[in-house]
Structures are given as structure tokens and as C-alpha cells.
Design a protein that fits this description.
alpha/beta; Rossmann fold; 2 domains; 14 helices; binds N-carbamoyl-L-aspartate
């Protein structure tokens, strides 16, 4: 079951785009299938709620998001989108740089017929000294959902507490990045499963059986990377095996490890050994988060600790996948991009489907 925040409010992507009308297996035309897709999202337990931390979602919610994202993928393929969120407005409030998260949330809203207003640090009254609470309290008068990225961990929860309109945390400092974890999960099941992600998420049981025992190796800046914080917490509920590989100074925080310990096996390493590479199903690579370091020398010491090259991939299974939330700044050699196991650009594309699903479930 979905937990409201404790506040007053409270088959793999080919590069094909539009597919011309075809009859489906059950004899329906593409437009009939699309019409069905419009109706699927009503009555979710997420309706009207904020998503600040991944732990708010029950497993049924996660499966529902995965299924709806699969439907959104189909919808985009067959008609580009629909008008299910016509009349709704999304406020995109980004106080840290973003390419993928910001644009995919905006594209998601536009593809569902909604509209977008956007604010950044220099264009908002934060520059005049306004508090975050006051800014979001003002913006909620103009929108139906607010997407917030902020440099301070805890800012999303603070903002959600000040509002009664749903807020989606698009990354709060070194805290969490729940929509990224959901798109990562979607990508993992879509890449590893023989069927589509939507079918693999038919039920919580189906999802668990897809993921149980899979070895997910997270590499890089596990201390400051908010994507791996949310993803480790999410994956640990599906009985996976987690390998945390990082320099000593960039270890996964204890708070995250404690949450993982309840459902997953995990180990911690300072080297990406051949043994780890050979058993890994998903190699999740992260950028060393330069902006979180107080001292540039400390950053320079660890920034090239792990570089994934074709030689690294040569040691991995043929069925393994390499993921990265992007942007990358040298930790994956571009020569890896041609390898079919490099899933990071497909992962980025999935972000829009998952964010369409979140918006549909929260606003429909
Ligand atoms: C990540 C982020 O902002 O946390 N990027 C993203 O949202 N896709 C990862 C990063 O910046 O390294």
C-alpha cells in the first residue's frame, strides 16, 4: 500500500517511433488498443499523493507503475500520447542542473496532453531570499503537480509538508531520486526478462520471480549518488544480491545498507574483481559527484577509481547489462556504447514512460 509522506498534505526499445496501424493478437486495431490504454490508470492508491522517497511505495504500487509504464511505452509507439491529462499543469522546479529528469518529466506531461510551467533558481524569488516553503506554496496555486530538484537532502520532504498539491522528488541533494529508481527497475526487468516489462510486472509475485537472485553491482560514488540510494532500497525488496563497489571514502551510507539488509544479500568491495564481473547481471555505474566535494583534491583522488572499458565488458556474461543514470564524465569508455549490453541510452528513454506512468497514476 502506498504510504503518504508524514506531512500535513501529506521488448527492448528499438529506435522505431510511430508504428502504423496493425491488428493486434486479440484482433483490435491500434486505435482500439490506444483507447483502452487511456482508461487503465483510474483509481490508483497513488492518486493525489506526493512521492518523496522510494520507501513510500508498496510492492503493489511498484508493480502498477511498471505495468502502466509498459502501457505508456505502447501508447507512445502507437499514437505518440493522448489527452488524459488535458487541463492539468505541471510545475517543473529545478534548483540543480538536469537534462534527462527535467526534460523527460516535461515531455511526459506534454505527451499526456497536460501543460508545463518551469522555474529555476535564477528565475525564482529564491534569488531574493524567499524560503522554499513559500515558493512551493505559491507555485501550487498555479499547478496540479510539482516536480522539485534541490541541492539539499530533505528539501523534497520539507516542500511536500508545506503543500497540499502532490510533489515528485526529482533528486534532493545526496538524499533520494525515486523516479530514477523506478525507471532503473523498469529497465532492469525490460532488459533481463524474456517478455516485456509490462508482462513481467503482471503481479508482485511475477516481479519477484524475475528479480530474485539477480546480481546487481553498483560501482562508483555510492556515498553521494542519490540514484543508488533509492535503487538499492527498492531492489532489496525483491530478494536480489547487491554488490557495492566503491573507494573506501565513497561507501554506501549505513542508513541505506540497513534498509537493504532486511530483504537482500549484500557485500561491499573496494575493487571490481573478475569474480564480481563474471557473476553480475546488472553493472550499475555512477559518476563521482564532484559537486558534493568540499575539496577538489579529494575529488581528483577518487574520480577515476573505476573506468568501464571494452576489456571490462569482455569479462562479463553475454546476458549482462551495463546501466548508468547519466551524465557520464569518463567512467564508461564511449567504445562500450556499441556493445549490445550497454543499456544506458535505452534506460534514459524508459525514463519518459515511467514518468508518464507516475503522472497518470497521481493525477488521473
Ligand atoms: C543523476 C542525478 O541527478 O542524481 N542524473 C539523473 O537524474 N539522471 C545522476 C548524476 O547526476 O550523476
Amino acid at each position: 500500500m502506498f504510504k503518504a509522506v508524514a506531512t500535513p498534505l501529506r521488448r527492448r526499445e528499438s529506435n522505431t517511433e510511430f508504428t502504423p496501424a496493425k491488428r493486434t493478437a486479440d484482433g483490435q486495431s491500434t486505435s482500439e488498443t490506444c483507447a483502452k490504454l487511456v482508461k487503465t490508470a483510474n483509481g490508483s492508491s497513488m492518486r493525489g499523493h506526493s512521492l518523496v522517497a522510494i520507501g513510500q511505495l508498496g510492492l503493489e504500487d511498484v508493480a502498477e507503475i511498471m505495468r502502466t509504464a509498459g502501457q505508456m511505452h505502447e501508447l507512445v509507439k502507437c499514437s505518440g500520447g493522448d489527452n488524459s491529462l488535458k487541463g492539468k499543469v505541471l510545475a517543473s522546479v529545478f534548483y540543480e542542473p538536469s537534462t534527462r529528469t527535467n526534460c523527460s518529466f516535461q515531455a511526459a506531461m506534454l505527451r499526456l496532453g497536460g501543460q508545463v510551467i518551469s522555474v529555476n533558481e535564477s528565475s525564482s524569488s529564491v534569488a531574493k531570499g524567499e524560503t522554499l516553503s513559500d515558493t512551493v506554496r505559491c507555485l501550487e496555486c498555479y499547478c496540479d503537480v510539482l516536480v522539485l530538484r534541490h541541492p539539499k537532502a530533505g528539501a523534497a520532504s520539507e516542500a511536500a509538508a508545506a503543500m497540499s498539491t502532490p510533489l515528485l522528488n526529482a533528486g534532493d541533494g545526496v538524499g533520494e531520486h525515486p523516479s530514477q529508481a523506478l525507471l532503473d527497475l523498469y529497465t532492469i526487468i525490460d532488459e533481463l526478462s524474456a517478455s516485456s516489462a509490462a508482462l513481467a510486472a503482471d503481479s508482485v509475485r511475477a516481479l519477484k520471480s524475475e528479480l530474485s537472485g539477480k546480481v546487481i553491482t553498483m560501482v562508483g560514488d555510492l556515498k553521494n549518488g542519490r540514484t543508488v540510494h533509492s535503487l538499492a532500497k527498492l531492489l532489496s525488496r525483491f530478494e536480489v544480491v547487491l554488490r557495492f563497489v566503491s573507494p573506501e571514502s565513497l561507501r554506501m551510507p549505513q542508513e541505506v545498507i540497513q534498509q537493504c539488509s532486511t530483504g537482500a544479500q549484500w557485500t561491499q568491495h573496494d575493487r571490481l574483481t573478475d569474480d564480481i564481473l563474471q557473476e553480475t547481471d546488472i553493472l550499475y555505474v555512477t559518476r563521482v559527484q564532484k559537486e558534493r566535494f568540499a575539496n577538489l583534491d579529494d575529488y581528483n583522488e577518487v574520480k577515476d577509481a573505476f573506468i568501464i572499458s571494452p576489456a571490462t565488458l569482455a569479462k562479463m556474461k553475454a546476458t549482462a547489462r551495463v546501466m548508468h543514470p547519466l551524465p557520464r564524465v569518463g567512467e564508461i569508455d564511449p567504445r562500450c556504447d556499441q556493445d549490445p549490453r550497454a543499456a544506458y541510452f535505452r534506460q534514459m528513454r524508459n525514463g519518459m514512460y515511467v514518468r508518464m506512468a507516475l503522472l497518470r497514476l497521481i493525477l488521473s
